[in-house]
Amino acid sequence: MLDPKFIRENTQIVKEALKNRNYNFDFDSFLDLDEKRRALIQETEALRSEQNKLSDRVKVLLKEKQDPKPTIEKSKEISRNLDILEETLKNLKTQFEWQLLNIPNIPHASVPVGDISCNKIIKTCGEERKFGFKPLTHIELAEHLDILDFKRASKITGSNFILYKGLGARLERALINFMLDLHVNEHGYKEIFPPFLVNRESMTTTGQLPKFEEDMYRLKSDDYFLIPTAEVPVTNIHRDEVLEEEQLPIYYAAYSACFRREAGSYGKDTAGLMRVHQFNKIELVKFVKPQDSYDELEKLLLNACKVLELLQIPYRVVLLSTQDISFSAAKCYDIEIYSPGINKWLEVSSCSNFEDFQARRGNIKYRPQAASCKPHAEDRKQKPEYVHTLNGSGVALARLVAAFIENYQNSDGSITIPSVLRKYMDNKERIAPGL
Known about the structure:
alpha+beta, 2 domains
């Protein structure tokens, strides 16, 4: 969330950000609410101070054997007024905190202003494959090879779920292990295997709640949520903690299943692996010093792109506009891969810098190192500051599987396994019927 003090002192910046996002929020009402809240806090504190003085006065009167009753009655009257004011203040604080949680992050100055048409392709890597035959879609290939079963998945659960079979299941597992090994061994991330259920506070920290609750799967009896991404549990590892500066940066890589209701996806392309309710993903999460966060975003992007370069799948990087970045992000790059069978570019990663937006919601701080010239340890203690958090998919399935099998298909309907994956698939060179 944004700092309330920053909002009060920079109302035009916040208004402009809301306008650039095309975000519907009654900002003037929020400012009025904040003014009433702060005035009521001052009034309450003044009454409480007066009550304390009266309590001290009663003690003096009793010691001096004077009648304390008028003073006691006045104190009781203040106490009654305080009860009313505190109940009103409690309600105002609840309204204020709710509205504050519904204000999105401020886009970075480098983010293009406008809708999705203002997104900028900043990099393209790899050539689209030229086929000597008409390429099949991943749906056709999966049915031919019997590696995915959409009909039975629908029977087991419902529409837009996936059942991986045989070498399809093995391919999914191979891609997961390949990506984890790459990020842990080559890019320096620490592997995490998080819970797939989180509480409401965890979802609020990363910005999924309260705004996007309808898109989440919730266990009503426990008020737990199935995670939409490993970003949620991994970011909350350090909730309500103060890290030391020498601990930063912290890099985590996590595999998880991801669950999304996709409540707003009616009418969108949902065939095959395009838009599913459960999918697997490798998530990369960073906790960094504020001054380093935009350099760390570029490194994060390179880490995610490396997956596709090693798999030799054509991709492009898109800088998202103010109306296309997520609620919590200050800046975001999408990575899209080309899927020739369906002739589409598919998003497989979003790499985002949230600055201190999530850290404020989750109370995640670090203590800067003091100047070494100060002689005493107590003088070297610095006031904790909020870290900056970043995350990106490194990368997401199932769209990666769709593009993978379409790019590596052969004229006989088999799929070539690139050398980088073969050690994860018993050194098989192809996925073909009967193998």
